[in-house]
Amino acid sequence: MSTATTSALPNLAAQWTALSDDDVSLDNVKQLLEPIRDDLWVSAACADRFLDDATVQRSLLDLGLDRTGAAASRARSAAVRPTRGLSESVDGSEDDEDISIPSNSRARHASLAAYFSDETADAQLCRIRAILLDRLDRLNTFVQICREAPAADEDEEETIDEEWEDDPWADGAAEPPQATASKSAGKPPIPLPTFLASDLVEIACLLALQENFTALRILMERHASTLWPFRFAILDCIPEYALASEYRGLLPSFELTADTEQRPLPKPWREEPDFVETPDCTQALKECGIAPPLPPSGNDHLHSVPEPLPASELTSWYTRRIDYIISSTGMVDAALSLVQHAASQGVPGLDEAGEDLTLVARLVYDAPQAETSAAEDWSLEMWRSMDPADIIRAYLAHTTEETVAHDIQRLVMPYLFVLESRAERAGKPDASLPTRLLYDYILNAPLGIVAAIFEASKPTLPQGRRVIRDDEAMARLALACLYGSDRIDEWPTMSRIFECLPAWDTPEEDGDEADEADTTIASLGAFVTPSATRPRATPSDLLIFFTPLPTSSLSRALDVLDVHLESGEILARWSVPAPLRWFLQSNSNISEQRARANRMARRANASDDKLETQEDWEWLLEDMLKLSGSGESGSRSAFCLLSKDDIIRIFLSGLLSTGNFDIAKKLLHSSSVQLSLDHQVVEDICLACSQEFYDNATSGNYHFGDMKLAYDCLDVPVPSERIIQEKEFIEATSRLCSFNLTSRPGIPISPIEIRLTKDRLSLVSRVLSSNNDAYKHTEVILDLVHKLGFRHDPVAAVKTLAMLAETALQSDDYPRAYAAAAQMVDTTLALRASSPAGSAAEPSQVEAASEVCWLTCFQLGRHPELPDVPQKLALLARALEFCPAEKLPDILTAWRPLEADDLARRRESLASRKRGARRVSNNAVPRQRTLYGADAVTASLASRLQSMHMPELHIPHSPDAAALAGKAFSHVAANIPFSFGGRGRSYMSDDVERERSGSRGRAAADGAHVVSEQASRVLQKGIGWLLGADDE
């Protein structure tokens, strides 16, 4: 081997080294490198430079390859010659025909390794040659990329420009732009030094990421041996939003005959590799310690697939790519473009994915979308996990009444046909699948959407344009949707649905068919009634009910629906709307109908449009009467179970409840409106409304509020005893509340509490106990008692006077106490006089009044603080007159001390008059004393008792007469519905305390006059005979 030294031209190498990469030119290469004779140095200098100028770079590569060619030839010769006898020719050329080829590759490898070990310069030159060859291939690829990539971009521009070639404003003299100028102006995707020095796989990934598919295609074709194993990693670098049509030449295809992935035909720059690129040479260089000709690849993290994929794995890769495109970008069009390309290349198993993506694309791009909310991200996994019903709802989620029919035709129907075809391919044909899913959507759609669908399905439209093409199915769907809806504010929409339904010419029904239809309606009402197992009948449930019905029953059901729709509109007009299912539920329930009628009559005036005139109320009555009838076909309306009189009663009650009493009077006497009600019925209604106002009142004052309405309501009917009595009770309530009665401390008593009080006299007692001067107004209190409902009850008057007497006595107002007792006695005497002996006129009232009277008189008569003895004797005398026979001894026990005191007082008065009196003339007539009142009764009793002679038997331990009287009074007083002790004080308690303490001197005297039990019986019998009592 001949080598040249650089000593002769030392300045050339130094000058070359001093040049920067940007300053290197063709002249520099010719003038500085070519004269140098050292092949190793020159080839190394060529490999050391990475230039931006492709022409200069090519000249360097050509020079380096020329200087390394001889070394490569020598190494090749050494590989095919035996190790021993190796000879070299001076010019490096040998006759290959005379060379004996070793019998095996191991000998060749050993021969080449030995040669590189001996000739290290040639080994270095071979390594440099491999590098230069690779760079030359890359340079050619780079030049082709720069030549074709801009041209592809320019083709589009030229195509656009051709459309304007006939522009009249264009300058005809101007020449079209030259393609060469455009090409020369094209900017390479990657700088040439980077392209030459970087890893090819990384360059391919970078071009894929930049979507430079032309450059990537050229790179994949020219360097297929290096890039083919990493083709899927390179494809994964392409952005997911890129359409497959733009890089379809890079995607894997399918070879049907081999059932595997089709390997594309490579287009390398050199058909045969150079000797230095063979595995034997590369391995020999490694064993000699020479660095590998190519830098180590940094692609260890990338998945390598050196062999073609089978059909199943290829399909899986496409499927994963499609799912990833949709999940990461949501661009269904990109995924659809990919699956369409795969199908065109014959990739199996993607037909269903293509169908799904086509349907998803319609959902994403064609279906109506919300203007405000963000679009939902869809994926194949999500699509496949959804039920068909959910997908239909997604298609029509943002549809409108104007577009729903068109959206169903262009979006939903294709999807339903795909489902039907898939079922057929699966061997499970289902011809009813499309209609069943469509009907399920209609049953759950809003009524506005349903109405639009029915309008697009009218029987008058051509069959091909109708969404629902079966008339009976339309009727069943309409019945199920309307009776299954809970809406109470869309009556015009419901009427729109009804107007689209078909009408059948059915013959007139006979009795059996009518009964069958009524039975159907009744069973439908029971079906829609909530139960424990089914709280609510859904439209789907109702469709099951209507499905078996024949045409005649459907026609009858539509007639009923017509009546119910009219009734629903009337109820909604008066602010008491009800869902259509209510008309079925209440068809045989009079309580439901009556309750709804009451709400209609009472809530009409509570709506925004209040009824202020008589004409408005007449309109309400007319509608209520209309609801009580039947439709033209005999279908029963909302209030079919209520009679006309029932409706009028409910109407009048509702009118009165609003407080429009003047309008009520006018309607009752109006000639245009016949309120055919009996006076007694009107009176009952007015009383009921008045009591309702009364019960709802919070204040008892009948000059305002609900109490005033309760009072004024009684002016509507003709006055009667019941009306007057109720008015008086309202006045009494107002007067009771004026006394500031309380139900609890600090809480005034309410009218409802007054009405619910069982013993209304207890209210009078509370008035007397809570007001210091109330007892002074006897007539006011008695008038209050009369208005509380006791006007014709003398016993209540007696009890009230007894309370007044007791209250006056507690206030130490003895004259008013005696006056009240005297009036009580007169009332009792009048009651006894009106019920003569032997008559059966309320004997219980006489007994009750007498009992209250004698007890009160007895207590007042024996009260120690009453100063007037004659008044006390008169009261005890009345007690003796009214008391039962068995109580006479008790009263007489109290009578005797008073009588003895009275006799002693009289004797003393008579003696004093005799001692100090002047003599009277002899002819003067002695003045006789006339006995009145108590004195008369006393004298009468005294004269009758003088004729009785009873032995005085002293029986020890006999009870005190006063105690016996107190015990008897306590027993009787327990039956009196009022309390004497309103101020915490009672006669009985005072008497017991006085008798126990012995505070009065007369108590000892009373104890001395006791009689035996036998004497008491004789005395009772004798006195009873004197008073006319029975022997019993």
Radius of gyration, in angstroms, nearest whole number: 63 Å
Assign an overall shape: elongated
Structural class: mainly alpha
What distance separates the N and C termini?
A: 174 Å
Summary tags:
mainly alpha, elongated, two-stranded antiparallel ribbon, Serine Threonine Protein Phosphatase 5, Tetratricopeptide repeat, 47 helices
What does this molecule look like?
This protein has 1032 residues and is mostly helical. Among the domains are: 12-82 and 106-149 and 187-294 and 301-308, no CATH class; 473-717, no CATH class; 770-836 and 843-909, Serine Threonine Protein Phosphatase 5, Tetratricopeptide repeat. 61% of the residues lie in helices and 1% in strands. The chain is built from 47 helices and 4 strands. It has a two-stranded antiparallel ribbon with strand order 1-2. A hairpin with a 4-residue loop joins strand 1 and strand 2 (260-262). Helix 4 (54-80) packs across helix 6 (120-162) and helix 44 (961-973) runs antiparallel to helix 45 (987-997). The longest helix is centred in the N-terminal third of the chain and has 43 residues, at 120-162. The radius of gyration is 63 Å and the shape is elongated. It starts with 9 loop residues before the first helix and ends in a 5-residue tail after the last helix. Residues 1-8, 83-103, 151-185 and 918-1032 have low confidence and may be disordered. Pfam families: Sec39 (PF08314). It is found in: Endoplasmic reticulum. Residues 82-102, 150-188 are annotated as: Disordered.
